[in-house]
Design goal:
alpha+beta, 4 strands, 19% helix, elongated
Length: 83
């Protein structure tokens, strides 16, 4: 492999600010902040807004679509009567 053309692939802590959830994984993302992890080592940290701990799809708090209500809204908007 050629030298100095590949990004720095290292362990990075991703911190979900909305749920205060942190996880460590490998990434090439560049960060300016560091954090001390549970093992006592210092890792670069990247702050995110949404992760699997706070996303509605993964937490089960997503809004179910009311298909009957959508049909009624369509009929009301375009003037179609029930059969």
């Amino acid at each position: 492999m050629k030298k100095d053309i590949h990004p720095n692939y290292r362990d990075v802590v991703f911190w979900d600010l909305s749920s205060d959830f942190k996880f460590i994984t490998r990434s090439t993302i560049e960060t300016s902040e560091n954090i001390t992890w549970e093992d006592g080592k210092t890792y670069p940290v990247y702050k995110v807004e949404v992760s699997s701990q706070s996303h509605p799809f993964y937490t089960g708090k997503n809004v179910l679509v009311d298909t009957a209500g959508r049909v009624d809204k369509f009929r009301k908007r375009y003037g179609q009567k029930d059969a």
